[in-house]
Amino acid sequence: MATDANEEATIAESTRLAPPTAPPASGEFDKYELLGELGRGGMGVVYRARQRDLDRIVALKMILSHQFASEEQILRFHAEARAAARLPHPHIIQVFETGQLHGQPYFAMELVEGQSLECLLHHQPLSPEKAVAILHPIARAVGHLHKNQLIHRDLKPGNILVDASGRPVLTDFGLAKMLAGSESHLTNTGAILGTPSYMSPEQAQGLAVGPQTDVYALGAILYECLTGRPPFRAATPLDTIIQVVEREPTLVRQLNPGIPRNLELICLKCLEKDPQERYATATELADDLEHFLEGESVVAQPESLAQRFERWCRRQPGLASHLGAISLGLVMHEIGYAAHGTMPPSAHHVVLIALVVWGLLSVVWQKLLHNPAWESRAETAWSVTDVSLLTLILAVADGFNSPLVVLYPLYIGASGLWWKVRLVWLSTALSQLGYAGLLVWTWWHQRPVGLLHRHVILIAGLAILGYIVAYQVQRIRLLSRHLEQRP
Hints:
Elements: H1 2-17, E1 27-29, E2 32-40, E3 44-51, E4 56-63, H2 71-85, E5 95-101, E6 104-110, E7 114-116, H3 117-121, H4 128-147, E8 150-151, E9 160-163, E10 168-170, E11 177-178, H5 201-204, H6 211-227, H7 237-246, H8 252-255, H9 261-270, H10 282-293, H11 305-315, H12 317-340, H13 345-369, H14 375-396, H15 407-415, H16 421-444, H17 452-485
Antiparallel strand pairs: 1-2, 2-3, 3-4, 4-6, 5-6, 7-9, 8-11, 9-10
Helix pairs in contact: 4-6, 4-10, 6-9, 9-10, 11-12, 12-13, 13-14, 14-16, 15-16, 15-17, 16-17
């Protein structure tokens, strides 16, 4: 039994370490002549090939390392071919035939002479007219999928090809899923499949998906066509998924003021967090894009003032929470000063000025966070500002008798929401320094500080809290990297 276990472990390890293999970039393959590699992804490779019996040029797709492919990968490969083949449409890649040679499954499809939308964009926005000219027919094609109870689930610029005449074509049905049918078993409940920057919030959370999932992805592609970047793209897939679930995208016209208002409204309706607030199907989206092209009113309408405020809070949660807390602190301070009046007027003015400066600096740091060159420094500066001004306010106010002292540990706990270990340790060190500085200030001005050992224990407790938060953030990031590396 032990020998069998060792053999299984050796086989598993060799399978895991085996490099991807595929037929050579040129030569004979069944009835095809391979003319060169067009591209490859995590599971498949596509060749330019000539079908000898019909003397036509095709794109030939097959699985990388087919001898090590899992049953699910092979099933998904065949499901991709079937999904495209049974839904003929002028803007969906045409599949000619499927086959197998020496255990190597493959399928032949039309060769689109052109480039992907991803290459066409190259981090530069398109004109509104060109963006709609590409997305309108693609939305019609996706609507065709939805009418046939199929969702794509991996819509992104790299899966849209644009030929020499400007005709866009939808490709790559590897993650396509029947709303009801045999292919539905290819996806386990809770599985997160797709590309993070174009995932819908429900897809990013592993929840049930439907046509609105594709509508969201189309909105994300339209957003990138208009601004030159997807609505969410962070340093890691984990950070991107967190933004997709929790944040609101920066307004399109804020990044590109030349975009028509109606087109921005269409884009933002696609990107609603609640699937019920989006277009029900891609056909409805295509209809609204057609209304835009014809200069008619669109279904997507401006939000109410309350909705705009709610969306602003989600778009800039750090600033919204800071301004909310500062405003609450200002009201509480004024009520306490009016009720008791024990604080000298000069100290009262210092607290007011500190709160106002705190709010203004929070606005500045939030602005700089949107600049990649300043992001790291802005995070550090904001942390220093928070602890410094909190300590100053406590020093001139009630000191250790103020309930605001509890903000030191809360600040450490909140720093974990940034999912950055460095920021957690910085927040911990700053909180300890702030608390120690407050202790020295209070003692220097001969104000009661209580038992010294109590303060030592509290400072040590801040360090322990920081370690716990940093450890949990590190564990989540390691788990995220492990899942990203899985085939």
